[in-house]
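Table S2 (text version). Query chain:
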Amino acid sequence: MTSHHVVGVSTGTFVKIGAGGRRLLNEFRHAGDWRLSTKLMVGFMLIAMGAIFFFTKQNETRTTQILTDAQSRLLTSLASSVAVQVETQVLQYRRDTIQVATDPEVVNYMRLSPTDQSAAIASLLSHLGPALKADPDYRLLLMLDPAGHVLVASDPALRGENVSSREFFARGLTATESAPYISDVILADDRTSQVIYTSSPIRDTGGRILGVVAVQISAVHLASLLQSQDLVSRHRNGFLVSQEGVIMSNSVGPRLNYRSVGSLDPAHANAVTKQFGLDSVQSLGLNSLAAEIANARAGGVASAPLLSSQETDVIGFASVPSQHWAVMVAEDQAIFTADVSDLSRTQFFNAFVLALIIGGLVIFVGRAFDTTERESLSDPLTGLANRRFLREILLRELRRAQRSNQPVALIIVDIDHFKAVNDTYGHNAGDEMLEQLSGIMISSVRATDFVVRYGGEEFVILLPETRLVDAQQVAEKLRKTIGETVMESSSRPGATLTCTVSAGVSTYPVDAASGEGLILKADKALYFAKQNGRNRVVTVAEADAPPAAAPVASIKS
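Corresponding C-alpha cell output:
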C-alpha cells in the first residue's frame, strides 16, 4: 500500500519538499536567533512527530492483537470442523468393520472345518467384495483364526501367514463388538504409503471368539481433509496428530510426517518408533505446544514456530474424541498482519510529509489525537468485529472481488421482537442472547467469512466469493438453527430463551457496486422481511418485486 501512495505524489510536490527542506536546514543554522515562540513551535512539532510515530506503533500493536485474537477463533473453528470430518470418517470405518464381523456368512464360515473353509473362500470373498469395494479407501481384507493365522485374504498371497505379532490382531482380539480397534495412521509395508487398520472380534451367538476380521484402509482420504479449499486458499496448514503428539499426516509435505511435536524420552521414543514402524522419531522440540494439545478434549489456540524457527504460527486445535487424536490448523501470523503493518507505515509517512509541508502544530496534534482516539475494532459484548471493522473489510473484499471477477454476498440479520426479551427478562438476559447468537453465527459460516455486530440486535455476515443462491442457503440454515435453539439464561435461573430472526441478502455486483450500497440494499430486504411476517429470508429482488397484495403494516423491531 505504501508504494501506491508514493506513486500518487507528483514530481512537483517532491521538488517543493526538497526546496522546503533546504530552507529548513538554513533556518536551523540560525536557530540561536529564533524567537522563543518559534523555538516552542519547533519543539512542539518535534514532540508531535515523535508522538505520531509512537501512537502509530501502539495502534499497530493493538490492531495486530485484535486481528490475532479474531484469527485465532477462526482457526480453532476451522480445526473443529476438520476434526468433526475426521471423526465422522473414523466412525464410518468402525461401522464397516462391524458389518463384516457380524455378517452371518462370516460367522458361519469361522465355524466350518479347515477343509470346508478352503472350499468356501471364493464364495465368501464374492459375498463381501461389493460391500467393501463400495468404500474407495478399502485396500485389504483379512480374516484370522484365534491364533493369528490368515484364513481369508483379498490378497491370496497372504493366506496362511501368521500375523499374531501385529498390533491390529492383538487389539482386535480384545476389542468389543460395538467398538472395533482403529489404528493410528502408520506406514504400509511398502514404507511409502500410509494406511489405517481396523479390527474386530468375530463371535458366535454365545459370545465365543471365533477369530478376528481386519481391514487395511488407505489414509489418503483423511489426509485430503487437511487440504480443504478453506485451508489452501488462505495459506493455512492442517495437521493430524496422534495421542502421543506425533504428526501422522499434514498438508505441508511428507517431511513433517512422524515427527514428534514435543521432545520424547528414550523409552517413549522406542515405543513410538515400534508403533509406527519407523527407524527413528525426530522431535520439533515444541514442548509447550505439545503440552497444550496433549489429550485435548476441546478446541483451543496456541502460537509456536511450527513450520519455521524464524516465523510464529497461530495454531487452532481441536480433538478427535474417539481416537484421542488432535487436528491442528496453523497460519503464519505475518500473513494476516501484513496489511496492518503496511497501513501503519503509510499513516506515518503521510503524517511526516504533512508535518514538513504545513509545519503547524495543529496538524500534528490532530494526527496524534486521531491516532490515540481510534475506535476499537471489536464489539466488547460479543467479541465480534464492529461496524468500523466492517467498512475496512468491505473495501478490501470488494477490491479483491473486482480483481478476481468474483461475487460477494452480504446478509443483515435482525432478531425479531428483541425488545420483548429485554422487557420480559431484563437487559442481562438480552445480552446473553446476543452472545449466544454470536457463537451460533460464527459456527454456521466458513472460516473465510466475517460476522459483524452492526448495532443493537443487528448483525452483518460478509461472504466473499459467494453467489446469491449460496448466500440464501447460509441465511436460511442460520434462521432455522436459531429458531430451533433453546438458550439458557444465567441471569434468570430456570428461564429458557428462544427467538427467531429475519434476514436480508444482497450481492455484489448484481445488487450494488459499493459496500454502502450492499448494506442499504440488504437493509431494504430486511425491512421487507419485517413487514411481511418476520422469521424469513428476503433477497433484494424479492423486496423490489411488485406486491402481489397490499402489504401488511408493521413496525420493524
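Notes on Table S2: The longest strand covers residues 194-203. The chain is about 50% helix and 20% strand.
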